[in-house]
Amino acid sequence: MNQSMHIRIQSASPPLLFPRASSSSYRSCPCYVVPMEASCNAGIMSTSLVSRCSLGGKRTHYVHSGQQIRKCSSQMGALVTSRESEVAATPAIGDDKIGVLLLNLGGPETLDDVQPFLFNLFADPDIIRLPRLFRFLQKPLAQFISVVRAPKSKEGYASIGGGSPLRQITDAQAAELAKALHAKDVPAKVYVGMRYWHPFTEEAIEQIKKDKITKLVVLPLYPQFSISTSGSSLRLLESLFREDDYLVNMQHTVIPSWYQREGYIKAMADLIEKELQKFDNPEQVMIFFSAHGVPLAYVEEAGDPYKAEMEECVDLIMEELENRKITNAYTLAYQSRVGPVEWLKPYTDDTIIELGQKGVKSLLAVPISFVSEHIETLEEIDVEYKELALKSGIQKWGRVPALGCEPTFITDLANAVIESLPYVGAMAVSNLEARQSLVPLGSVEELLATYDSQRRELPPPVIVWEWGWTKSAETWNGRAAMLAVLVLLVLEVTTGEGFLHQWGILPLFQ
Questions:
Q1: Which domain covers residue 412, as residue numbers?
Q2: Is residue 432 part of a domain?
Q3: CATH number at residue 165
Q4: Based on the domain organization, do 110 and 179 belong to the same domain?
Q5: Of 35, 36, 19, 81, which Cα lies nearest the Cα of 431?
Q6: CB distance 292 to 337 below 8 Å
Q7: Which reaction(s) are listed as its catalytic activity (predicted)?
Q8: Could you read off the pLDDT of 339-387 as tens digits, one per residue?
Q9: Are residues 348 and 334 in contact, defined by beta-carbon separation less than 8 angstroms?
Q10: Which of 471, 474, 426 minimizes the C-alpha distance to 446?
């Protein structure tokens, strides 16, 4: 490619809200410095390596050249590893009953499930936020929106087989994780809790209580943490924990993100390397990481670590690929935005068009924020974005499958669970010495406390309306004005009466 590129170091601002993983060999180089000591109460300052290239005079946050960017990252040290030698020793379990709760979004399994699934989604006050005076309209409004959107959504689910495969895949991941834990002498039970469809998180919690679990590891199946994904599920858990005496006394810990674990990185690199070999000229393929978007306000106003974690995750994967002599150019963009609020940029669809205009002929899409196939991979990426790419001049299209039950990935999840067991119920968030190769350690309430007060002031992912002089209000007021003008014109033409006729304007055009 002929783009002129330069590398810029950009500090993540505001600082990450959650404690980040630390190891004795954490990344450092003369141009990329990560503080080795910081207050856990304030979170770890994080830097991210960002490159930019010029597109017709404007700076666009996209293409990286593997050869250039690695000059720095090759000096960054080892990945955060799973410490296989330490994990091999059986943790002291005693009489405790260990449980692992996998959290995910959920999806309709049949076309008949689509409308009630959408109702559950829009009934969430974190998705559609109403003024306090109108909170009683939450469910009626969710019912209205779900009924209106259901026909279009059904078309999408019909195109991928009549429903989402997310539950089947997540159940299979749970079964394989349980096997991996048993193989390591940890007889844990693994549960699946979905946010908006069966099995709901509430159902999983009831089963956990019936099984008399005494120690619980909460593991969201989102590699990178975001307020809108893992955070939403954790807020639900928080409310459930507060209301139940059994749960109050049950020790637990949360692994909110695990994007930098060695097993995950290697599993992603394996899939990318395999798909590249399907192209006639693998070295000429642009690797296109497409991540689920989040509202920009979550990152800029609340310090959501999602963007910084996503960029670091992509850097780690590309570093692993370069170790395998794969130095393809690559880019990161964000998909699945909805509503009038601004989301993380660059957008996937805009970037695909720009890549086609710049002469890219081969593109390999990588669904970086998803570990299971669902509507956003099978329909949005495989159908909509592929069609857009071909129309934009890209001739060869490929797509890396989601991880699913890939053995390296499952084994690493098992290691993460085992590493967290000594800290279940412990206040490891406030103990620097306790921090090890997994991210986190802390209860649901401890993790949520870092942003809960700010969250209530943030716009939700989907806004129906806002009061006051806001961008959303301007958008909807503009649409209302356009509709009113259209109605007036129709009345003028059909009745021959109105202001335009009275002022002598309309007859001039007849």
A1: 86-259+407-455
A2: yes
A3: 3.40.50.1400
A4: yes
A5: 19
A6: no
A7: heme b + 2 H(+) = protoporphyrin IX + Fe(2+)
A8: 667 889 999 999 999 999 999 999 999 999 999 999 999 999 999 999 9
A9: yes
A10: 426
- What is the rounded CA–CA span in Å between residue 104 and residue 173? 12
> Of the candidates 72, 434, 103, 88, which has an alpha carbon nearest to the alpha carbon of residue 256?
103
- Evaluate the CA torsion angle 481, 467, 150, 143 in order and state its sign: negative
140 and 226 in one domain?
yes
pLDDT tier at 321, thresholds 50, 70, 90 = very high
Q: Are residues 185 and 216 in the same domain?
A: yes
pLDDT tens, residue by residue, 200-250: 999 999 999 999 999 999 999 999 998 888 888 988 998 898 888 898 888
Q: How many CB atoms lie within 10 A of CB 119?
A: 19
Residue 322, pLDDT above cutoff 90:
yes
Confidence of residue 141 (pLDDT cuts 50, 70, 90): confident
Q: Which DSSP helix (H) or strand (E) runs through 453? A: helix 452-455
66 or 237, higher pLDDT: 237
Tokens 């356009």 map to which residue? 482
Query: Poorest-confidence range of 159-168, 173-182, 396-405, 485-494?
Result: 485-494
Q: Report the C-alpha gap between 389 and 384 in whole angstroms.
A: 9
The verdict on residue 446 lying in a domain is: yes
**319 with 327: CB under 8 angstroms?**
no
How many domains in the chain? 2
d(C-alpha 399, C-alpha 382), whole Å: 7
